[in-house]
Design a protein that fits this description.
It is a single chain. It is elongated, with a radius of gyration of 29 Å. With 324 residues, the protein is mainly α. Strands 1-2 form a two-stranded antiparallel ribbon. The longest helix has 70 residues. The chain has a domain of 182 residues.
């Protein structure tokens, strides 16, 4: 077994923190020739140096919150020479810096907001672990698009996101895939329908969109009851038909699509069931509270009547005694 260590002493210090860690490549794991890795590594360094530290900057104190997923993708990209994925990883982290999810975690009695980058990392890792039967170059585009899938929607690009391909060294297919899955908040119903139709026709965009939904449905417990119903309704209306079509028409990746579909279906059904149960319990409690309030009002009214009656009787007795 040959184990090779690489370090980055030849890099400008300002960019070292944005580059992959000191990878350990095991050639028994089909890592490929060392020279191929050197070429890949040099290309990655040039791209990240060109992008620059202003874009790639991130809060290092939060890295522990997502380190396992980040390093898993980082290693995977290097092992299989996925240059787009390797570039997209620190790029997405930098562009999502200082943005947070709604959830939080506690450590040593201190609460921490979850950095938003956790979501793209989980979407990307989900797709990697599906072991999708696509050519390596398509997988590279897919994983890079998964990492960047929310950038056009959430980041105020000067040129509408074309920076991904024109400034940030990503393949144009990454930009095209991200653009396809980007959804405006002011979509009309007809625009939303066409949005999903266009995604369905592109298997990479379809996989990113489905994995995005597959990850988001894990967090439905953080949403309000009405939002869960709205989210589940949208899933039933657009995602299930999209996945049924994909499973029937993309035979080479149908098993991966089926896994995504089953995950989304199971979690949405479970979420809706739990929310319905919650709604039922809430409705029952509201009725009980309303009944108790009515009883309380009735008792208060009765007590006030009896109090006034007692006071009136006492006053009447006092007047009678005074008259005598």
């Amino acid at each position: 077994m040959i184990v090779v260590y690489f370090t980055y002493n030849f890099l400008p210090h300002s960019c070292v923190s944005f580059l992959p860690g000191n990878f350990i490549l095991n050639q028994d794991l089909e890592a490929g020739p060392v020279e191929d890795y050197r070429t890949f590594n040099e290309k990655l360094h040039r791209a990240l140096n060109d992008i620059g530290s202003d874009v790639l900057h991130y809060n290092e104190n939060e890295f522990w919150l997502y380190r396992p997923d980040y390093e898993f993708i980082e290693y995977y990209a290097a092992r299989y020479r996925m240059i787009n994925t390797a570039i997209a990883l620190p790029l997405a982290r930098g562009l999502h810096d200082n943005v947070y999810r709604k959830a939080s975690v506690s450590r040593d009695d201190v609460s921490y907001l979850l950095p938003y980058i956790i979501h793209p990392l989980e979407v990307c890792r989900l797709l990697i672990e599906l072991n999708i039967a696509l050519p390596a170059d398509e997988c590279d585009i897919l994983f890079a698009a998964a990492l960047c899938h929310d950038l056009i929607e959430d980041v105020e690009f000067e040129h509408g996101g074309t920076e991904l391909k024109e400034l940030y060294h990503l393949d144009p297919r990454v930009y095209e895939t991200v653009l396809l899955v980007t959804k405006r908040k002011d979509f009309t119903e007809d625009e939303e329908r066409r949005h999903f139709e266009n995604i369905t026709k592109n298997r990479l965009a379809m996989l990113v969109k489905a994995a995005d939904r597959g990850n988001n449905v894990e967090d439905l417990y953080n949403r309000s009851s009405w939002k869960v119903h709205e989210y589940v309704g949208e899933t039933k209306k657009y995602f299930f038909p999209m996945l049924e079509y994909a499973a029937a028409n993309y035979k080479d990746i149908s098993s991966s699509i089926s896994i995504l579909r089953d995950k989304i279906y199971t979690l949405t059904v479970a979420a809706e069931f739990l929310v319905d149960r919650y709604d039922q319990q809430e409705s029952k409690l509201r009725r009980r509270i309303a009944k108790l309030r009515a009883e309380n009002d009735s008792l208060r009214k009765t007590w006030n009547e009896r109090w006034h009656q007692s006071v009136e009787e006492m006053c009447s007795d006092l007047r009678a005694q005074t008259d005598q």
